């Protein structure tokens, strides 16, 4: 009996020992969790600098470093389906050399060939990446880069005077070579077909005078083209003497600028008359052809019913009138904007003149046209904050000479110089940090835009520079404008210089370059450069006896009156 009891006790101890040993074995051999741990991005450097996920002006031989919290599985890095790619904005992949550092936690990316200048690239690290332990990247990243402007000159250097002549001659081709074949008028833009523009043609008329003066064409050739244009204008649609904004260059019929804008456009008409009166003063010979040209111009100018556009005899001029919609556009012409010449020509008319009260109450708006504040270190006499788009200082002043010109409201030489300098200083200050802005790249005005068309100005700036802004400011800022011209031509010429001069606009920040050219932007370039060089168009327009009388009646004073 004692033997049996002992055996049972020994067996119990054996079971206990086996059970304990089994528990120990279970604890040691349990398999790890089969799910790999995800990992994260930790740092991005471009040429050893870290600036978030957007970089501008990087060198073309840049080196990119991306760091992660885990060592990377190298097999998941490269190739079209790899986890890291560098592509331009057209989705074209860049061939890369990949190396590693920090125990494979940092991926070093070097393009096999230099990146293209002024080009936007995107560097992507996607969740296709795996860690050496099999984990997935928790969240992908995208960084964007804009490369530097190529510092090499795109064309051989020439003298400043030769460069000015070259720009004028190339821009002149827009109005001469690309003039509408039937009407001779300026087409709205390089893709406009038969749509010709009234105001742009006015600028083009002054460009033709410049072309004769600079020997781009002969006087006889210029006269023949002007006879064609004026002959067309004699039969084209008019509304109380005012032309529409757009005209069919074949038929002379109005083309609606917008739904209700299918009648007279007084501002566009004033730009046309500004050009026509300049032509009249230039072609001053006594022969039959030039005498007939002058008579035709007098008839066109005399037919404009400026006083009708007072809208029921009010003390303001109105921009539009339509035979279908009457005054429904309802846009009063109150300053400060591009339309000073509209009031000057209305006051100068010998057939449908307006009194000074319309100028004072309408244009000057009882004196509220004045500003007097300073922007970027420059005091501005008139207009909105920072001056508005620079075409305010150009369109009316293709003919009106602002130098030494004053009235009750401003000194217009001071006004326009201040406006241009504010734009120049704004680009130097670059408060929005747009890549490319600076003393060599400045000028905001209405032009084509990345998203269509926009009146660019310091208060409405999206990074788009319009060459016409700085170049048409040559009379006001000759040194600053020359800096811009040299940069546009020598450094960006491969992107913005074409058969008709500089294209309409560009953005280095967004690596966008317009392919368009517009009459209202090309015209001020050639004309205002000429006014800077010789005051030719200023002298001609200001020599008009009607203009002298009209401006004096409005209270203007100038050595040219």
Automatic annotation (TrEMBL):
Coiled coil: none annotated. The keyword Signal applies. Residues 60-147 form the SbsA Ig-like domain. Keywords: Signal. The keyword Signal applies. Residues 332-545 form the Glycoamylase-like domain. Residues 1-24 form the signal peptide. InterPro entries: Cu-Rt/internalin_Ig-like, Glycoamylase-like_cons_dom, SbsA_Ig. This is Glycoamylase-like domain-containing protein.
